[in-house]
Amino acid sequence: MDISNLDIFILIALAGAPAHGYAAMQDIRERSAGRVRVSTGSFYRRLSILIEAGLVEEAPGPKDDDPRRGAYYRVTAHGRQALARERDRLAAVVAAVDALRPAPRRGRP
């Protein structure tokens, strides 16, 4: 499965604790400083794919929670592994880009 940018942010949003869809979308907007655009339709479409792939699953919500919030979701062990692989892949990309920077000249700032 190819993991999209939105998929990564969904996994990150659900990695800390189970959350309902709206809370996860808000988390994505905040973490990305608005750079990742997420609509309700795109979120649930990608969430459905992540569930089918076994990366996310439904989870029980808090006992005192408003039932109108809908289902809660959490990252599975398989999802955490996928997130770790993406972290490593992105770290390798950053290292490759950093290697393109010219070395500082001696004696000059």
Task: Report the portion of residues in β strands.
Answer: 5-15%
Could you say what the CATH topology is called?
A: Arc Repressor Mutant, subunit A
Strand order of the largest sheet: 1-3-2
Order of helices and strands: HEHHEEH
* N-end to C-end Cα span: 46 Å
Largest sheet, strands/sense/barrel: 3 strands, antiparallel
Estimate the helix proportion, in percent.
40-55%
* Fourth-level CATH superfamily: Winged helix-like DNA-binding domain superfamily/Winged helix DNA-binding domain
Total number of domains: 1
- CATH architecture verdict: Orthogonal Bundle
Quote the average pLDDT: 91
* DSSP strand count: 3
Could you list the spans in which at least 5 consecutive residues all have pLDDT below 50?
A: none
The structure class reads mainly alpha
Helix count equals 4
Commentary on this structure:
This protein is mainly α and 109 residues long. It has helices spanning 5-15, 21-31, 40-52, 77-98; strands at 19-20, 56-59, 72-75. The chain has a single domain, classed as Winged helix-like DNA-binding domain superfamily/Winged helix DNA-binding domain (Arc Repressor Mutant, subunit A), CATH 1.10.10. The chain contains four helices and three strands; from the N terminus they run H-E-H-H-E-E-H. The protein has a three-stranded antiparallel beta sheet. The radius of gyration is 18 Å and the shape is elongated. The N and C termini lie far apart (46 Å).
